[in-house]
Specification:
The chain is α+β, with helices and mostly antiparallel strands. The chain has two domains: about 80 residues, PGBD-like superfamily/PGBD (Muramoyl-pentapeptide Carboxypeptidase, domain 1, Orthogonal Bundle); about 120 residues, endopeptidase fold (from Nostoc punctiforme) (Alpha-Beta Complex), CATH 3.90.1720. The protein is about 25% helix and about 15% strand. The strands form two sheets. Strands 3-8-4-5-6-7 form a six-stranded antiparallel beta sheet. Strands 1-2 form a two-stranded antiparallel ribbon.
Length: about 240
């Protein structure tokens, strides 16, 4: 019988499902168990349907990255064991909840033009400070406020705080700025893009310098990672130079 959305699985249920190896193309009760567990600990999956698709594979890969397990996107015994022990990420553990009331930024003025630099040099430091002030805000697909962000909603929000109106989605944001030949050409304030669960720009972040970027991870919300990370490096699509 299919599991209802929102069920939190017990350790015994998870253990019972721990034997099968799951990967793209798998389907059924075991995949539903996997999806429910990932969703309950913060690795959000939109469709809890028992079908192991690209979104489930992405969530598994991110969980493996965070657990220092070899990143394959395939659920083996080591991944099941780690899932059994995993706890939800909650406020108050290591991050103070932001004091924002969670209002959306009203987009004012025309959208920033594509294919051009759009960020004045004097706004780089304020933009980065604003971006870091939301570290720990949780992820939610479609989120556009400090209550919860998705990756492109986060960028749109922090740029809006600087009076710069950028598009809402990652693929549209990828049209901004000037394409860089390598990550070495990036400067703080530029944008970085990744190809994760689908072709093209499906994830984005703000470059901080020294090989680091800030973004909204589906597992731990707004956080800082390195471009050289085993998870992000092979998925790096390219950078866009937007600083004037």
């Amino acid at each position: 019988m299919p599991l209802a959305a929102g069920i939190i699985l017990t350790a015994s249920q998870l253990t019972a499902a721990a034997s099968p190896t799951l990967q793209q193309g798998s389907h059924g009760h075991e995949v539903m168990v996997l999806q429910q567990k990932l969703n309950s600990i913060g690795y959000k999956i939109k469709s809890l349907d028992g079908v192991y698709g690209a979104e489930t594979e992405r969530a598994v890969a991110e969980f493996q990255r965070d657990q220092k397990i070899r990143i394959t996107g395939i659920v083996n015994n080591a991944t099941w064991r780690a899932l059994k022990k995993a706890k939800p990420h909650t406020w108050g553990v290591d991050i103070e909840k932001p004091k924002d009331k969670g209002e959306a930024i009203s987009s004012k003025g025309p959208l920033a033009p594509n294919g051009q630099t759009i960020l004045p040099q004097n706004k780089v430091k304020p933009l980065i400070a604003t971006a870091k002030s939301y570290i720990g805000v949780p992820y939610q697909f479609g989120g556009t406020t400090p209550k919860a962000f998705d990756c492109s909603g986060y960028l749109q929000y922090i740029f809006g705080k600087q009076g710069i109106n950028i598009p809402r989605t990652a693929d549209e944001q990828y049209k901004l700025g000037l394409r860089t030949k390598s990550s070495k050409e990036l400067v703080p304030g530029d944008l970085v893009f990744f190809e994760t669960y689908e072709k093209g720009a499906s994830h984005c972040g703000l470059y901080l310098g020294s090989g680091e970027f800030i973004h909204t991870s589906s597992s731990k919300g707004v956080r800082i990672d390195k471009l050289s990370d085993d998870y992000w490096s092979p998925r790096f699509l390219g950078g866009k130079h937007i600083v004037k």
